[in-house]
């Protein structure tokens, strides 16, 4: 079964490239730096569409002191409130997203050190509106946040 799956996936990718399938994912690339800034603070996606999001840590400070992740939150969850909740749940410099708070999360990247990147794919919510995202490394949620607008 697994042997059959890989050629199937490859041909699906080729088809998407060849025909510009309208279901292909929208790509978003966001960087995080040593000044605790995401370079993209707003982006827009279509409701129910596929989103391919890449986070790159372009800083130099070691991961244990200046790691970054990107956590997309469910509707109505504020980045600030969620950052505080994650801290209360035990978020730390090696595990900034405790399992107990993942119920508020649509998608999340790994925690990244300098020159690391992570690409995640997820389906945008069907409900339009504003969805906040945040870095949950301790101390970052006040500055490292943004909004995914679903239309
Ligand atoms: Co951060």
Description:
By secondary structure, the chain is α/β, with parallel strands linked by helices. The chain has one domain: Cupredoxins -  blue copper proteins (Immunoglobulin-like). It is 21% helix and 30% strand. The protein has helices spanning 2-19, 63-66, 79-88, and strands at residues 26-32, 42-45, 50-57, 71-73, 105-108, 117-123, 129-134, 145-150. It is globular, with a radius of gyration of 16 Å. The model has no long low-confidence stretch (mean pLDDT 91). Bound molecules: cobalt (II) ion. Cobalt (II) ion binds at residues 32, 36, 68, 135, 137, 140, 144.
The SSE order reads HEEEHEHEEEE
Specify the CATH class. Answer: Mainly Beta
Distance between the termini: 38 Å
What level of helicity do the residues show? 10-25%
What share of the residues does DSSP label as strand, in percent? 25-35%
Largest sheet: 5 strands, mixed
Kindly state the mean pLDDT as a whole number? 91
- What is the tally of beta strands? 8
Rg:
16 Å
Class per helix and strand makeup: alpha/beta
Number of helices: 3
Major sheet: arrangement of strands? 2-8-7-4-5
Q: Which blocks of ≥5 consecutive residues have pLDDT under 50?
A: none
């Amino acid at each position: 079964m697994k042997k059959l799956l890989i050629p199937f996936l490859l041909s699906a990718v080729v088809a998407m490239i060849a025909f510009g399938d309208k279901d292909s994912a929208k790509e978003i690339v966001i960087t995080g730096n040593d000044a605790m800034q995401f370079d993209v603070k707003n982006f827009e996606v279509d409701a129910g569409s596929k989103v391919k999001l890449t986070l790159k840590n372009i800083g130099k400070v070691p991961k244990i002191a200046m790691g970054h992740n990107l956590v997309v939150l469910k509707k109505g969850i504020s980045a600030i409130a969620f950052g505080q909740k994650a801290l209360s749940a035990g978020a730390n410099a090696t595990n900034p997203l405790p399992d107990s708070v993942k119920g508020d999360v649509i998608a999340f990247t790994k925690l990244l050190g300098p020159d690391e990147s992570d690409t995640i794919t997820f389906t945008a919510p069907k409900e339009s509106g504003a969805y906040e995202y945040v870095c949950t490394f301790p101390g970052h949620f006040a500055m490292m946040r943004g909004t995914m607008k679903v239309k």
